[in-house]
Design goal:
By secondary structure, the chain is of the alpha+beta class. The chain has helices at residues 12-23, 50-56, 88-96, 100-124, 135-150, 153-163, 168-175, 179-190, 202-208, 225-231, 275-281, 290-297, 327-338, 375-390, 396-399, 408-415, 467-479; strands at residues 4-8, 27-32, 44-45, 65-66, 72-75, 81-84, 222-223, 236-239, 243-249, 252-258, 263-265, 268-271, 305-312, 320-323, 347-353, 356-362, 400-406, 451-453.
Length: 480
């Protein structure tokens, strides 16, 4: 009988990890607190990388990628709308109505950003290098990274090194003059970040949201990858159970104890739970060095996004509507969150589907100053979203029949997002590559032999659904 591995969680990363382990000869049990596999799973945003699709044969099993066209519509003054399409030329024609200069620059901008995003895709599908590692393996990883960067050419490498630390506002101000265009592009730079567009490193986030997209598309596609993965054969999934403790004996992992007291023996445990909860809550105290605990507690997982769903009695009249009219608007929206307030002029991105609207609301901080996320606060947020959308889609408020608000605390427990942060660790420059989530944990191993981290707090983060689990499982197979 094959050795037993336990995977905690049933999101894209955990299910990919489970499938990779099963194909490596392990008997895999997935533990999920949800009532059913992929229970309530919505379409997942992000680039499903081709190596994962091929290895798990996901297309044959029904993987579908949604690429709306236009991919975004942005209201402009006097009722006009800027539409950006999957086709670069068509987007340029839309931009031309507001700025002929920006329209002329759009194709060159798209080509350059696409080149940089392809380089980041390559980095995403390799484990992070260890710049301080010893031995042939560490040197080989660094050499491989250098070779991949060299293939970009001198100009491409210079562009990458110059742009990654930049504020996205500086990047866009260098290229364009139209506020509406800069606003809707700048929103990709702050997506899920507790930062405004004038913060350093937001260009990295902008490029990460371009992974796997056609040139000129700066929002991740949606897919049904979790539902497809949950339906694959070869692993066992137990739902409605929760891991209460990861067992360690004689210095190595031995299994998982459930909340009801049942102990499940395992030679391998891969946890999709965020690193702090995995190592500080699920392990008995004392297994980590004090310095490791301090570093782990310093990992930033600040959630600033709420989700509001509106049920309508008719179609919304738009596909994807972004309320981000300028870079200054985005910066002011973040100013509220810095002081623990929900932005009163938030960045909204609303996606219509049949007779419903799903709104991404930013900035809505996890911890509110002098208030809490009670029902009154949630109702105020829903009112604000309806009011804001109604100003750009007249009559929408009258069509609303029901509202559902998920504030950052509501996203924490059911989805396993610490403080409501979908990336597990905030997707900032200082938590990237071998620093994600901390340098000590960046290679998916923990100080406990047999225990690995496979959630979105690991490299490459939530931009590439399944990739963190893919790398973690391959590391575990290599070690065993």
């Amino acid at each position: 009988m094959s050795a037993r591995a336990v995977v905690i969680g049933a999101g894209a990363n955990e299910l990919v990890a489970a499938q990779v382990l099963a194909r490596g000869g392990w008997s895999v049990l997935v533990l999920d607190r949800s009532a059913a596999a992929a229970d309530g799973a919505t379409d997942v945003a992000g680039w499903v990388a081709p190596p994962i699709v091929r290895e798990l044969d996901l297309e044959r099993h029904g993987l579908e990628i949604q690429r709306p066209d236009p991919w975004v519509t942005a209201p402009v003054a006097d009722g006009a709308r800027l539409e950006l399409w999957n086709d670069v030329t068509r987007s340029a024609e839309s931009i031309r109505r507001f700025s002929p200069n920006d329209a002329a620059r759009w194709p060159v901008f798209c080509e350059q950003m696409s080149t940089l995003a392809r380089a980041l895709e390559t980095l995403s599908m390799a484990p992070p290098p260890d710049p301080m590692g010893e031995g042939i393996g560490a040197l080989a990883d660094l050499g491989g990274l250098a070779l991949r960067m060299r293939r970009m050419g001198r100009q491409g490498l210079e562009n990458l090194l110059r742009m990654v630390p930049m504020p996205v506002a500086d990047l866009l101000d260098d290229w364009f003059e139209c506020d509406a265009l800069k606003g809707v592009l700048g929103a990709a730079g702050v997506l899920h970040l507790h930062q405004g567009p004038r913060a350093g490193g937001t260009t990295l986030n902008f490029l990460q949201n371009h992974l796997g997209c056609a040139p000129g598309v700066f929002r991740p596609a949606l897919s049904n990858v979790v539902r497809v993965l949950a339906a694959l054969q070869g692993i066992e999934i137990r739902c409605g159970v929760e891991a209460a403790r990861i067992e360690v004996r004689e210095g190595r992992v031995t299994g998982v104890t459930l909340a009801g007291g049942e102990e499940i023996a395992a030679a391998l445990v891969l946890s999709g739970t965020d690193p702090r909860r995995t190592l500080l809550d699920l392990l008995e105290p004392g297994w980590l060095e004090p310095e490791s605990v301090r570093t782990l507690r310093g990992m930033r997982s600040r959630g600033v996004v709420a989700q509001v769903t509106l049920a309508l009695d008719r179609a919304a009249g738009f596909s994807t509507l972004a309320i981000a009219p300028s870079l200054d608007y985005l910066e002011r929206a973040h100013d509220d969150a810095k002081y623990g307030r929900v932005s009163q002029q938030p960045y909204l991105e609303a996606r219509a589907e049949d007779r419903s609207v799903h709104a991404h609301v930013q900035f809505a901080p996890y911890a509110l100053a002098g208030a809490s996320w009670d029902e009154a606060q949630r109702a105020q947020l829903a009112d604000l979203v309806v009011q804001t959308l109604d100003a750009h889609a007249p009559g929408l408020s009258a069509a609303v029949t029901a509202r559902r608000v998920l504030a950052p605390p509501d996203l924490e427990r059911p989805f396993g997002w610490p403080e409501g942060q979908m990336h597990g660790a905030e997707p900032a420059l200082d938590q990237w590559l071998w620093m994600r989530p901390t340098p000590e944990l960046a290679r998916y191993r923990t100080p406990i032999p047999g225990l690995y981290l496979c959630g979105s707090a690991m490299h490459p983060g939530g931009w590439v659904p399944g990739a963190c689990g893919y790398h973690a499982a391959r590391q575990a197979l290599s070690d065993h």
